Amino acid sequence: MKSYLYKIWNSLEKLESNIAFYPSIISALGLMFAFVMIYLESRGVSKYLVEHAPILVVNNTETARSLLTTFIAGLISIMVFSFSMVMILLNQASSNFSPRVLPGLISNRRHQTILGIYNATLLYCIFILVSIAPHGKSYQVPGFSVLLSIIFMTLSLGAFIYFIHSISQEIQVNTMMDKIFRASKRRLEHLIDSEKHIDVDFEETSDWKAISAVSTGYMQDVNLKSLMTLAEEHQLKIAIVPVKGAYILKGLPVLKYKGKVDKDKDDDLDLEKRLVEAITFSNNELIEDNYILAFKQITEIALKAMSPGINDPGTCINAIDYLTELFALRLQKKDRSYYYNSDDEALIHIQTVSFEDLLYNVMAAMRTYCKHDIIVVQKLFVMFQYLLQTESVLNTGYKECIIKEVIHLRNDALNNHQNDRDIEVIKSYIAKLKNVTPSEYSFDI
């Protein structure tokens, strides 16, 4: 039951990231409120207010119609402009930065809420206009409802001004990188806080029984609580085979487990079905579920900035600053992750991307596309210098892989620069790095 509820919750989260989710909800609320006001008008709310507070009522039929017609035409124009701006933002982000940033931009709740306010006000005005119906020889004017439409239109204009401000900020690359960085930082800090610093000698899983994927897609998330419940109930040990965020093809192993299933084969198959149901597959990748995506997205923005068509090393340097802070935070996390029961026994092994692989994948791309730019190379050396001086690197085995990448960067930089001054700068940074590393590591120049 819990696994089904978890899948429903995940489906709602996916729906929430859709650009039409909040506009649809707010539009429905606006439509419902219009019907409520039409009902109240039929009960004489405007007539009562005319007698007791006439300032709150628009009591002229032509004025009411003119106002509502103008509001409807203006709101349609504002909506078209706003949707066009959103599409321009998405197109520019995809072409100038990285297509991977689009899911984060589409799921922006502020823009969705603003578009919802427009549509809700538009629907409200349309139905209030329709409710101005003949009543004998005159027309029944929903005066109080028209006054509310003026208030809602004023709110929509305020939302439009805020939308212009917000879209002008969102389209800036620094704002995009900062948003990516903050989402990844929150996820990393959560993982670090949830880690129990207990040395675990987990069993070898090569001979464990494997469970294959029943569908194709990115492994978005795993319901660890559901897996732990099954592990304790059936006395199992479970290993998650792929790394979260990996693209899984149907038929490839996603879980391995070890334990005795005392009943018949049907119970064994039912258990495997319940185990694999704890894994959520999706065609979208979100940083909130997988911090590795932040490294990919920021690296791709940096590489795009260094392309000949854009040629923006300043953006690349800013991206390296964000990567430096993320790597420093990643140094605090262990390469091996486990999920423990209440007795601090590790029953689930969670496959993670090692720090060495993460650093290599980022630096392999950066070295390939940025090694010709001495300014960017200097910034990368500064990043390594900072990482080697952090307290976290002293308590882990990550120093050696950092130094390996320093040597690779040094070799590529020296091979791609012939200017004496550039070579002198590279050697000076290597000399600085030698002062913060133990003597057993060689930085021969």
From TrEMBL:
Pfam family of the protein (one): DUF2254
TM spans (from-to): 20-40, 71-93, 113-132, 144-164
tRNA processing recorded as keyword: no
Keyword list, A-Z: Membrane, Transmembrane, Transmembrane helix
Protein name: Putative membrane protein
